[in-house]
Structures are given as structure tokens and as C-alpha cells.
Amino acid sequence: MGTILDTILDQKRIEVEELKQQTFSKEKKPHASLAESLRNKSLTIISEIKRASPSKGDLNLNVDVQEQGKTYERCGASAISVLTDTKFFKGSFADLEKVREVTTVPLLCKDFVIDEVQIDRANDAGADIILLIVAALSQQRLQELYNYATSYGLDVIVEVHDEEELETALSIQPAIVGVNNRNLKTFEVTLETTERLAERIVSSGALFISESGIKTREDVERVQRAGAKGILVGEAFMTAASLEELFAGLQV
Ligand SMILES: O=C(O)c1ccccc1NCC(=O)[C@H](O)[C@H](O)COP(=O)(O)O
């Protein structure tokens, strides 16, 4: 039996064919920079809009994405990640477009990118950043999609989960590497993944983000100690009783 990642990628191949029937603006727009924030701020927080997930089910299904986006910006988010996958995360490109209307902070189109047309779609919807998951791509496709996205002026987070994926990522000399603490095949989450891969990332000179499973100030300190300059937080923000308090608590 295949993994959840295999199932998601099968669905993406269907969606890519559908997207190819549509036309998107290929305009190169000015893009707000995530890399600049990672270089200059002591902690870059990427706050995610995540209605639901394969591992946790519904998190905040009926969230008002514009209100959530505005609150993230007010609380000090350096970037906002919007899950655009519908089948597994109950998000959409419409969510991304709605958030774009109300904020100027950099927006990450969080999806499973396997084809250039998805990057056209993300750029058209107003994204500033895309994610490329090494586990979903060959080295050659990773390089091609990275070049394609950066030719739009988009920032790219190249996501890895283990040593082998990290070496593939570093072979294309990415500006930003994200370590996903969640194993996308088993759903296991541990911050040890960030700690294990940290030294190699820091010594490569890439900007370093830790993703998933971050809920407390202790978690933030742990990944910062390892060398991460940014964190990507979804579930904790989507289920927080008070976003303001959680934000303040993570940054103390
Ligand atoms: O979250 C999942 O269940 C999931 C399953 C399969 C593929 C990807 C998945 N999540 C995407 C993410 O990487 C997270 O949404 C993101 O890093 C935030 O994680 P968290 O703070 O733990 O919600």
C-alpha cells in the first residue's frame, strides 16, 4: 500500500491536467521577500491557515481566512502560509486569493508542487513563496521547478525530512531550506529531525526554517538553538483559544 504522500501526489497529477486546461497570467509581479525576513529578524514566524489535515482531521473548518490573515499580520507574522489543497486539507486557491486581498505580508502557497502550471496558478493567485518537497520530486524536476519559480521572483522553501533529501536539496544550492519535523509518510512528528539536520544546513549557508509540531516557547527555543531562523506553525494557531496570547508566548 502506498503512503499518504503517494496518494496526495496521485491526486496532484489529476489536478495538474485540469490546471493545464486553464490560462493564468504569467505576469512577473513585485514579491515581498521571506528571505529578507529570515536574514534580518531574530525569529521569522510563518503562520499557517490550515482548515484540516490528513493527520488530525478538521482543525478549524469554517475559519474566516481574511480575519485569520489580518490577525496573523497584526500579531507580527512575517509570512502567512495558506494550504491550497482541497481534497486533503480542505483549503483552496480562493482562500489564498482572499488572504491576498487583506494583507501585504509574504504569502506561501502551501501545496504539493509537481508541475510548472501549479506555480503559474500560485503566482496568479498572489503567492510570494512556494514550497518544493524533495520527497515528491526527482533531483532534475526539483532543479527545473526551482528555476521556474525563482524566474517569477518567488521565494522557494525546499523541504526535506532526512539526510538523503537534504543532500538532494543542497545540490541545487537553495536559498531557503525547510526541515519538516513531520514524516509525510508515517505522520510521526519530532523536533529531533530539525536538530539532526541543523549542522549541515547551517554550514551550507542556506536560510533555515523548522516546520511542524511547534506549539510552545520551549519548542521555539529548541529549534532556534539548533540554528533555525524561522518557524512554520499551523495546528497550534488554528486551534488556539487566543492567537494574540500564543503569538506573544512564542516570541518572548
Ligand atoms: O499536517 C499533516 O497532516 C500533513 C500530512 C501530509 C502531508 C503534509 C502535512 N502537513 C503539511 C505541513 O507541513 C504542515 O501543515 C506545516 O508544517 C504546519 O505543521 P503543524 O504546525 O504541525 O500544523
From TrEMBL:
Native species: Ectobacillus funiculus
Coiled coil: none
UniProt xrefs under InterPro entries: Aldolase_TIM, Indole-3-glycerol_P_synth, Indole-3-glycerol_P_synth_dom, Indole-3-GlycerolPSynthase_CS, RibuloseP-bd_barrel
Entries under PROSITE patterns matching the protein: IGPS
GO molecular function (one): indole-3-glycerol-phosphate synthase activity
Limits of the Indole-3-glycerol phosphate synthase domain: 5-245
Name by which UniProt lists this protein: Indole-3-glycerol phosphate synthase
Gene name of the encoded protein: trpC
HAMAP family: IGPS_B
Similarity comment: Belongs to the TrpC family.
Pathway(s): Amino-acid biosynthesis; L-tryptophan biosynthesis; L-tryptophan from chorismate: step 4/5
Keyword field: Amino-acid biosynthesis, Aromatic amino acid biosynthesis, Decarboxylase, Lyase, Tryptophan biosynthesis
EC code(s) of this entry: 4.1.1.48
Reactions catalysed, as given in the entry: 1-(2-carboxyphenylamino)-1-deoxy-D-ribulose 5-phosphate + H(+) = (1S,2R)-1-C-(indol-3-yl)glycerol 3-phosphate + CO2 + H2O
First-tier enzyme category under EC: lyase
A Pfam family this chain is assigned to: IGPS
